[in-house]
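Exercise 7b. Backbone tokens:
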């Protein structure tokens, strides 16, 4: 109970209310003490009027008047003459004099607190102004015990009232906090616990309905987070299913392609010049397809395999990519160009770099074909002291805005209608595996340009040329 939000709020409320009542109690007691003195002055003045009306009064009457006024002596100053009007024996010397003619507030509070805690029997002199212009000054002497008793009695009543107010206020605040704050927070916690048991169930996403602004903002943030998480979990599940299906397909396709490799050996023996020229490229393509199936099976079990870095001829790889894409163009008006410096050898995995460039060129070809307009695709190689760079440029319609926002994300960054976005995601992952990066240099109505940057590091490289 005490560790709960409402319990702690109840304790804090009670403490703060008591502090507030204490701040009220101190000046209230000081005010009561001032009123007590002024009341005694007024009573003493009224008692003195009897003597002023009749110079000779009986001692018994004088004693009764002083007793009713609650004082020992009354001194009245009239017409610049100070006169002892009523008097009786004083049991002790005067301890202190209090001037009630416009005293400062801090002095009233100080004297009240001192008098409240002083248990000794004292005699006080009090000076004040007579009421109704009954003179210029009035002085009285009175005992301290009745004053202290009255202060204590008044203080007890104030404390009891404060306690009642504190209890009632704290109780009302406790109920209000439980109703308007604790209950909605508990509802959010219940939603979170229920959602945690089945995060894939979209029905468990919280519906913001809190009336308190801060709680509603928290509910909206939680709803957004749950929506994103549910979508991510569903996508993860789809990806897992897709990975399993791709692994099965790759397994069977690998067997089929292995058989196809055997047939290419006979094609190699053909006397037809065209067949003899295209046969090596067909063999390379089938070999790459077999390797890709092997990599896909590996990927289904873990992650994309680490690249086997060697020195390789970039021109040969680019030539193979463009040769394959030319065959896929068909009757569309499209041209290809390549500008790779002679002898430019890069440090990369030949199969993976072929896939990277192939994905970029293929995406460019598909974008131009989908636009229905003529186009051109170029692959340009360059290098500096830090990087080898390969730029793939097309004159297509540019990337859609949605594709730009989710670039390199599988199933979100598709560049064409019906595209999955896997090509760019795979290309980016493969380049990162080389320690490089794949950047979108520009995309607009004039076309798109991607740049592959492969680092030149000090790692020991194999001199083999692929």
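Sequence design result:
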């Amino acid at each position: 109970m005490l560790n709960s939000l409402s319990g702690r709020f109840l304790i804090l409320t009670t403490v703060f209310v008591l502090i507030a009542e204490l701040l009220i109690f101190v000046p209230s007691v000081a005010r009561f003490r001032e009123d007590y003195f002024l009341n005694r002055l007024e009573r003493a003045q009224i008692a003195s009027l009897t003597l002023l009306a009749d110079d000779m009064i009986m001692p018994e009457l004088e004693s009764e008047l002083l007793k009713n006024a609650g004082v020992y002596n009354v001194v009245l100053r009239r017409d610049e003459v100070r006169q002892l009007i009523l008097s009786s024996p004083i049991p002790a010397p005067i301890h202190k004099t209090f001037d009630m003619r416009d005293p400062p507030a801090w002095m009233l509070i100080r004297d009240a607190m001192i008098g409240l805690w002083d248990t000794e029997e004292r005699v006080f002199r009090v000076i004040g102004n007579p009421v109704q212009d009954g003179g210029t000054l009035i002085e009285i002497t009175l005992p301290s015990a009745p004053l202290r008793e009255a202060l204590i009695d008044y203080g007890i009543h104030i404390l009891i009232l404060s306690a009642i107010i504190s209890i009632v206020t704290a109780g009302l605040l406790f109920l209000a906090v439980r109703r308007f704050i604790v209950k909605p927070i508990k509802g959010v916690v219940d939603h979170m616990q229920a959602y945690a048991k089945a995060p894939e169930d979209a029905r468990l996403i919280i519906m913001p309905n809190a009336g308190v602004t801060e709680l509603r903002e928290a509910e909206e943030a939680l709803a957004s987070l749950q929506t994103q998480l549910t979508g991510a979990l569903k996508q993860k599940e789809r990806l897992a299913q897709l990975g399993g299906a791709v692994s099965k397909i790759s397994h069977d396709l690998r067997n089929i392609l292995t058989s196809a490799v055997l047939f290419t050996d006979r094609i190699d023996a053909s006397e037809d010049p065209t067949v003899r020229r295209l046969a090596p490229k067909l063999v390379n393509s089938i070999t790459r397809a077999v390797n890709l199936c092997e990599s896909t099976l590996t990927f289904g079990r873990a992650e994309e395999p680490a690249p086997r870095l060697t020195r390789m001829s970039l021109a040969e790889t680019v030539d193979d990519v463009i040769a394959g894409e030319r065959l896929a163009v068909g009757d569309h008006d499209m041209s290809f160009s390549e500008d790779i410096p002679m002898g430019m050898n890069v440090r990369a995995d030949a199969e993976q770099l072929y896939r990277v460039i192939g994905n970029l060129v293929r995406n460019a070809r598909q974008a131009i074909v989908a636009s229905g307009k003529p186009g051109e695709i170029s692959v340009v190689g360059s290098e500096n002291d830090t990087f080898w760079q390969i730029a793939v440029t097309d004159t297509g319609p540019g990337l859609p805005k949605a594709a730009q926002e989710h670039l390199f994300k599988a199933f979100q960054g598709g560049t064409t209608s019906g595209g999955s976005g896997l090509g760019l995601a795979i290309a980016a992952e493969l380049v990162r595996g080389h320690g490089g990066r794949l950047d979108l240099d520009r995309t607009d109505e004039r076309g798109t340009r991607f740049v592959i940057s492969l680092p030149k590091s000090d790692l020991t490289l194999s001199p083999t040329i692929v």
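Instructor comment: DSSP finds ten helices and twelve strands in the chain. The radius of gyration is 50 Å.
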